[in-house]
Write a structure and sequence with these properties.
CATH superfamily of the largest domain: SGNH hydrolase
CATH class of the largest domain: Alpha Beta
Shape: globular
CATH architecture of the largest domain: 3-Layer(aba) Sandwich
CATH topology of the largest domain: Rossmann fold
Structural class: alpha+beta
Distance between the termini: 67 Å
Number of strands: 24
Amino acid sequence: MIRFIIITMLLLAAGGFSAEAGSIRMSQMYSDGMVLQRDVPLVIKGQAAPGEKITVRLDGPFKAMHESAKASSDGAWEVEFPPLKAAVGLTLTIEGKSESLVYEDVAAGDVWVCSGQSNMFFRVFEGLDNGDTPADPQLRLFNMRPKLYVNDERWSDEGIAATQALDFYHPTSWQACDGENMRDFSAVGYHFGKMLRDSLDVPVGLICNAIGGSPAEAWIPESALKAGYPEVLDPWFDNRILNQWCIEMGKKNLGYPETGAVRHPYAPCYLFDTAIASMEQFPVKGVIWYQGESNDYDIRQHEKLFPLLVESWREYWGNPEMPFHFVQLSSLNRPHWPAFRDSQRKLAESIPHCEMAVSSDKGDSLDIHPRYKKPVGERLARQALYHDYGMDVTPCGPVLKEAVWKGSQIVLSFDFADGLKTSDGQPLRCFEVAGYDEVFVAVEAEIKDGKVILTAPVQSPMYVRYAWQAFTRANLVNGEDLPASTFRATISR
């Protein structure tokens, strides 16, 4: 527990601390067991009475560090320490005029945010592929659970009032990963963090704040939407360009218009204001993201919203190169999903330090929540290990490099193609070719000398595509059994 050392008994009698009396307020992210981000200048910030002197001390397996700051006129203060190396058993002490806050069992390591909608929220105990999930005291979990879940009914008056007041998440704290709290944590997040722990051997902190059904616009700050896509900010309940299912759920939950309540977790900006801003820029290494189902109805709109989301979070954390890795939508019987998956592939290619994990081979034709989450989390971890940590691992499945027309054949070359093969030992499938008319027909395909060779059935092939089925059984993988993404490409000559 945080130890509060109270100098003035009057504060106890008053039932708490006041800014006037010199109380210190820290972000909810500060608790015993927290993980501080290593290898970057460490900023500690909080609130106190205007003009109050704050001293921050960090003790550990190194010479104690301490810095002081004076709270500004609005009570804000911050100090900065040199970058920390990975460590455990640290103690962080924050002292003011009349009290101290002491945080124990603090670690220095890497902190990742796990966010998005229900497939990120999907918990470990719900999966079918958890296997051995041992306790790990150096895998630390900060699980932000909502007080209300979006469903097809009106919330209580108390719930509606709390939602309007932006009081949407239960209080929580950092917990060392054990058999109990791990079960209720994000399955994708857990398996991502476990692979990082096994590979890096440093403390890893995971912050999960995913909300089922949430659209991308709910996670973007108002300033970013005003600058980049202001139409999204039109009155939500009457906004015809946004997901109408989300809006109808909002009306039912809030009892609109009878209650007059308008703020809802699916509304633009709400989850940024409640989940992200509440973190108060607690330093992190990067983000993993699994979302898109609630924006699949309009690909062009998602192509505007997703870059805004990434850019705004990087701006919020003051890191224009902050890693942001996401999961491509999987396979489901929704006809527009192949085009959406291809759009996500192109977004990953166009946004720096943004990598994608393919999940179409783990889809379920009838369930939007595939139950095999371990490979998805590990594929995200592979991207991070390769791109962010410089480790010699294969980050992903085959990535199309070029498609070239040679005589009567089309030759497809790929990056990350060592050991190119099929996942099931069967012939390649799900390749299609079209001419200028864009009428696609299935083609025979074979692997030869590390490339995919297609026999063109059309006279002047112009386009090639792969895995262009809502629920696909495409089977191209590399030697690490990592799948190729859905793609469409123009054939060069």
